[in-house]
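Write out this protein's structure.
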Amino acid sequence: MTPQEAPQHSPFDALMATLMDLLALADSFLATFLRPWNFYQIGIAVAIFVFAHLLAGRLSPAMRDWLRSREGWPTWRLRIFIVLQRRVRTMIFVALIWLVVEVMKQTTWPSRSYLLAIIAELASAWLLIALATRLIGNPGARTLLRYTAWIWVTISILGLADETRDMLESVAISIGTSRLSMWLILQAIVLLIALVALARFLAGAGAASIRRNETISPSMQVLGVKFLQVCLYGAAFFLALKLVGVDLTGLAVLSGAIGVGLGFGLQKVVSNLVSGIIILLDKSIKPGDVISLGETFGWINALGARYVSITTRDGKEYLIPNEDLITGQVVNWSHSNDFVRLDIFFGTSYGDDPHLVRRIAIDAASGVSRVLTDRAPVCHVVGFGDSSVDYILRFWISDPTGGLTNIRGNVYLALWDAFRSNGISIPFPQREVRVVNETLPKIQT
């Protein structure tokens, strides 16, 4: 019989054959499990668990109180000890059962501690997996990876790994020359979750290190953090595909086609992304800067990949697209430094000495708390109006995030108080109405 004439087995037949092998293995395991000494070992394991539970009931509250008294400890250290405190029962159980297994191996036949050794291996593996998966920040991904690892470790310790792998390999679909099995999919999911969790941990640690470096400007810190996140997450994705045996050549062609489609269909999104990178590179604006864009005035709260978050004095948060900051006119009040000069205008009557008015105005502005004294205020005459001598008062502040309208109002109030104390009047338009002919003709009715 030639190879072409050999019978071809369908995936369903392969799956049924694997299931029959698993059932036969389960029957053999049950026959071994029903021996008397196995019941004794289960009873010993239950007794150890009860003892560990009672002992943990006393140790866990004491450990919790001890942690509450640890003042000054860093957050990461407290979190590690809290995780250990929550798993103290399992740790006690693992330590005690391994001790019992070693004692029984020295005093009796190895077969009489075989089941206890399996239970000890399972408990140790479950404990290590529970502790390791705490590094994953996403609760859903952490739960999925934890239970998947528990299942696979249990299958491996029980000696069913090969049979389970064959069963999962038998469930597959063929797409062209590629064969996509359930085993391959599970491998890809587990590896991707694990690598993404590792990338997230490394990105968080790297971002904290970058933000602590005071020699790097805030805009470059944001750019560095974004670049690090993109590199780590991208490497995690492609490494997971490579480890499970996916050919990345076809993926490169597909990604090129997707990139062209995105370039045409998402022009605004791509424009905002590129504009965000330009903003971070040229350092035109950075977190903390006070800017004006049209009618919006506030300080930059955060720089995003697509938009800039601006918080105004009234508590509103505006999300300005990055493209608008590149193509539009932006007033950055604190680009090179935090010094801001403000101008206010006022007028006094022609009967007041302008030299005295200037001195009083400068002294009044200098007495306001937020007005800088090292950059002294100045006052100049700017014109002679219809009813007043017009002045401009200029002063400097170094905290534009504290608001501009309020400091102007405080300076105006200081001028008002100083002018009243020194008898200087502020004119206002007045109209005089004269009746030319006081004798009005009577209206004949």
